Amino acid sequence: MRLIANVYIRQKKRMSFRKVNIIIWVLAVVLFLLVLHHNFLSLSSLLKNEVSDPGIVGLQPIDLIANVHQHPVNERQEEIPVVIAASEDRLGGTIAAINSIHQNTRSNVIFYIVTFNSTADHLRSWLNSGSLKSIRYKIVNFDTKLLEGKVKADPDQGESMKPLTFARFYLPILVPSAKKAIYMDDDVIVQGDILALYNTPLKPGHAAAFSEDCDSASTKVIIRGAGNQYNYIGYLDYKKERIRKLSMKASTCSFNPGVFVANLTEWKRQNVTNQLEKWMKLNVEEGLYSRTLAGSITTPPLLIVFYQQHSTIDPMWNVRHLGSSAGKRYSPQFVKAAKLLHWNGHFKPWGRAASYADVWEKWYIPDPTGKFSLIRRHMDTSNIK
After folding, report:
1. Which of 122, 147, 293, 311 could form a disulfide with 202 if both were Cys (CB 3.0 to 4.6 A apart)?
2. How far is residue 311 CA from its own chain's centroid?
């Protein structure tokens, strides 16, 4: 009997040991699956956020949202990067521009929105509301240290204190994996399919395509003290020896850098960003810009670097100067036919008085936080049929 009892005890111990082994094995499998799942999520997150070069100080990713599109999109289509700045005081403009692009295309667009950390939460809450929930976007923080020694405060040139206007100089850093990109200001509305602008042909060796200021009589804006602001002498000081040595004709037609298509492969090959920074520094040291300058101070370095080395975009893709006065410089029929409307100038469409503010407002989405609101002195009663 004692022998039988011992055998029974040994069998019971073996069964208990086997159960313990099974439990340990199950726990090990569960732990392995949990580790594998964690690693997969980490890799997925890394792949989603790998948009900017971590080696570049000043341009750091904040987040990337890739939701389901409102319109059917062929994911095999080439991705179209659209870079746009978003300053706190003009955030409504950025939102309207993005909405107009999104609603008028079925292309695979991703927005690279350059802003400051202090504006990111406000921007994100706006983007996550209403019809913009389905867009794909990347928010990138712009560190003003990038501009140290390259710009100086000038009371006559207010934009010297607006760092985000220089984001366009750093396109290859903002979208390092792209071969081409579109840059546009926040005071635009897109009425055509952005794919057509993206497909603008660039000549061999050209890093960008702009809209020239001589492309139509309507773009010749009279600036007090500067005459017709559509040539190089309106932006550069030809009394300075360094400018004269460049042998650039003062009568050369200028171009508008508020909307352009960039060949980023050529941009990087020619070190365009370094060239632009060089002329920014030289201006700080020598004052190379025209003192009657009425446009953005980002224009002169671009005019120098791209002198006779740029392609052109269709004039209808940058119908500008809508913000040069409160009056209507274009007919309703022309405004309706334009592919892109640009309110460059002092009279912004979200401000107190602007031409065709009603056209802009069709694409505006009210701020869910209530921080940004339209300023209206009177309602524009004209409508485009």
Report:
1. 311
2. 20
In this prediction, residue 56 carries a pLDDT of 38
Of 24-33, 43-52, 270-279, the range with the highest mean pLDDT is 270-279
> How far is it, in rounded angstroms, from Cα 136 to Cα 245?
46
In which element (H, E) is residue 285 found?
helix 272-286
Q: For tokens 């976007």, name the residue.
A: 137
Tokens linked to 199: 């497909």
- Band of pLDDT at residue 57, cut at 50, 70 and 90: very low
CA angle 171, 174, 176 (to 5 degrees): 90
As a whole number of angstroms, the distance between CA 136 and CA 13 comes to 61
The residue to which tokens 């710009």 are assigned: 151
* 255-263 vs 180-184, strand pairing mode: antiparallel
Work out the end-to-end distance of the chain between its first and last CA atoms, rounded to an integer number of angstroms: 105
pTM of the model: 0.79
